[in-house]
Design brief:
Elongation Factor Tu (Ef-tu), domain 3; OB fold (Dihydrolipoamide Acetyltransferase, E2P); four-stranded antiparallel β-sheet; 12 strands; 28% strand; rod-shaped
């Protein structure tokens, strides 16, 4: 006698139900495997992704913005610009000041021109001729005074002319010496200082011009676009808020009785409620100070417990980990103890 077969549609539903039960059982097995293991410590916390507020160091009018909310940016990318015209003009003025200061220093170091030295030499020769003529006239008047052919008044006048000619000669000789020696070392040092100041001013102008471009400091996601092109912004006024891609941290908490079961550097597994993916990381920091459990982490009964905050560095974080997301951190305490003993 032939056994009647089940309808085809009903068979498919039975097979589908069996598959669902098998998958659920397997998932429950993997989930409870660690939860029932006394060597696995379960900690709870939240994803802590660092954020950066990006701003210009210089004031000005924004001319362009290259990123919008949700856009991924890479380190070094220009994501906003200010009107650079005023800063280019300031740099041009600073360059002109430097050129003038450098020209003055070059003049001081070069000394007087050959023509100026020749002029000083000719003044000395002229003064020498005048001094010789005055000396001869004084000697002649003195001889005539002895013979009575001249008066004392004439001799005194000749002496005054001789002394004046000698002073003119000394002055011309000193001017020639100065022309040959050039400028004083103090003047050269002052000129060099003016050049250094002008160079510093030019460097500042270049820096200010470069600061008209806002550059992403690292890879990240734009989570807030605060200003728009055409806005006047002051220095340090936030323009974007950037969520960094790396590193990704988890802020978790451990109770005092379990504190001895973990150490910095211990490997951990991180799970979320939104997916079955398991992330890997290590404990990077354990706070030396106790605090009450944050309300966002534990149940009402456990909120009054004293715990120690720790930071987990996630090695393979991706966009599945988002700011503030609650996570479970599993620490293999048996391996941690073995690593700690090996380190000692």
């Amino acid at each position: 006698m032939k056994t009647p077969s089940l309808p085809t549609g009903k068979t498919r539903w039975i097979v589908f139900a069996i598959v669902i039960i098998a998958v659920a059982g397997l998932a429950l097995f993997w989930l409870m495997r660690d939860r029932g293991n006394p060597d696995v410590l379960h900690l709870y916390g939240n994803v802590d992704i660092r954020e950066v507020e990006l701003a210009f160091r210089q004031p000005g009018r924004m001319t362009s913005m290259a990123a919008d909310e949700g856009d991924a940016v890479t380190a070094g990318a220009v994501i906003a610009r200010l009107d650079a015209t005023p800063y280019r003009e300031k740099m041009a003025a600073a360059q002109a000041e430097l050129n003038a200061a450098q020209a003055g220093l070059d003049k001081l170091r070069s000394g007087n021109r050959p023509q100026e030295i020749t002029q000083a030499q000719e003044r000395v020769r002229l003064a020498q001729a005048g001094a010789r003529e005055a000396e001869r006239n004084f000697a002649r008047q003195s001889t005539l005074l002895e013979s009575g052919a001249s008066s004392q008044r004439t001799v005194d006048a000749a002496r005054a002319v001789r002394d004046g000619a000698a002073a003119d000669l000394a002055s011309a000789q000193a001017a020639l010496s100065l022309a040959k020696d050039g400028f004083r070392s103090e003047d050269v040092a002052a000129g060099a200082a003016r050049v250094a100041a002008a160079q510093a001013a030019l460097a500042q102008a270049r820096t200010a011009l470069a600061d008209t471009e806002l550059v992403a400091p690292s890879d990240g996601i734009v989570i807030a676009r605060i200003r728009e092109p055409g806005s006047m912004v002051a220095s340090s006024t936030p323009v974007y808020t950037l969520s960094l891609r790396d590193p990704v941290y988890v802020r978790a908490y451990v109770s005092e009785p379990d504190l001895g079961r973990i150490t910095p550097g211990a490997s951990v597994r991180v799970r979320t409620d939104s997916s079955d993916k398991v992330y890997h990381g290590q404990i990077g920091f354990i706070s030396p100070r106790a605090e009450f459990t944050p309300k966002t982490v534990e149940t009402t009964d456990l909120r009054t417990d004293l715990v120690y905050r720790l930071r987990v560095v996630v090695a393979d974080g991706d966009q599945g980990l988002r700011q503030g997301m609650p996570v479970t951190v599993d620490v293999d305490t048996a391996r941690t103890v073995d690593q700690s003993a090996a380190g000692r």
